[in-house]
Amino acid sequence: MATATGLPTRRERALVPVLVFLSAVVAVISSLGAPLIPTIAAVDHVSLSEAQWSLTITMLVGAVATPALGRLGDGPARRTVTLTAAAVVVLGSVLAALPLGFGWLIVGRALQGVGLGLTPLAIATARDSLPAAASRSAVALLSITTVAGIGLGYPITGLISKFFGIHAGFWFGAVISALALLLAALVLPSTAERERRPLDTLGAVLLGLALVGLLLVLSEGETWGWGSARLWTVAAASLLLLAGWVWHELRTAHPLVDLRALRNPVVLTADVAGLVAGIGMYLLMSMVIRYVQTPTGTGYGLGASVVIAGLVLLPFSAGSLLSSKVVPGLARRTSSALILPLGCAVSLVSMLLFLLARDHLWELLVVMGIAGLGVGCTFAVMPGLIVNAVPAHEVGSSVSFNQVLRYVGYSTGSALCGAVLQAHTEPGRLLPADSGYRDAALIGCVVWVVIGLATIVLPRLGAATAARRSVRVDEELMMDESIADGVAGESEVPVLRAGAVR
Predict the structure, then answer these.
(1) If we measure between CA atoms, which residue out of 65, 58, 101, 63 comes closest to residue 84?
(2) Tell me: the pLDDT tens digits for 122-155?
């Protein structure tokens, strides 16, 4: 509530910084496990494939929790849902930090995954609590924060674990998540006046099971074998569950995700872009992290430590944050719709640079800086496009679905990198040939070209469809008017004749 002078209160001024901090914390915590996988395997005496679950489980739980939190947050309990999810993240961070063994670490990482659903709630809060101009810039910044936070999580984790041990990284997560919870409790506004909408429990279960199966296939494909019967069985079952979920969502009165919104070309473009851009983003990040740490004795690579590999991602975060300053000006001079293909073009440049120039550390720093700018521009406008295209009571759900598609894209990009590099690894060798990175980069170029073209074509197809629909409606109205005029004329004829007889 504003003061008597019309100026915003201290609580209102603090809202956006707190929402940004909350989103950044979630992004950093979600990536905490990635650089620590080899260390976790050594400390807890498990295999690398088992240690990989410290990252996989967070993504799986996040994919399941995000749409449910988004729908619950569209009602009067958004503040309660946000604070509860943040408290679960704190609990998970503490469990992951305590030296209780590998099992409790996995439980803690699973609870941290609930926090991945907080960013859509933060976006919905900004949309409802701020004036139109301020909400647009806040929504863009929140979307970019999720990308920049991933780039920050890797180097932070590497530095802390190197100097203070593996559990110190998770204690860092516990401290910053507790601070985020406290700040959120102080500034989050109430939404008690919003209409309560029932949670589509069956839809949440169907979507959750389908996403768990699909993400398992993507994350465990290398371990299980891409041609194994177990993998294809899980994939088939997941696709059947996904088809059942779509059928259910189109027929229920209160769906978990309003899939009819995909008829809107703006929403469809944003969702397709979120999925495919996520693939391109994680494909490049996975390649760079592995390439930097590859021993120079292989004839390529830089032989750097995990700390250096994490620091290489800092320009990615810096580029992402820079895009938050660039995008508003571009949107004013052009339009938000044009920023999507522009961001894809910049990301394509970064992939081409990795393809052609990756022999020195400074080259990879430039690559990641450009990649951060391109991905930041792409992701900055997606939530805003969705927010402006759907009703207010669907914002949380629609943005959450877009976020889930990003997670699927992240997992797909990571798995795609692993599959391509494994295909270029000779039997008996641990490391792939340099040609694997070349082919993976070429695939990345194709990904960015495809999504760039899609962001241009899909809106035009939607506009053409809308124009045809408008013409049909006009023709139907004209026909109805003609019929009505004819009926009215026929009703007048007997009256005139009757008057003539009289």
Answers:
(1) 65
(2) 888 888 888 777 777 787 788 788 777 777 777 7
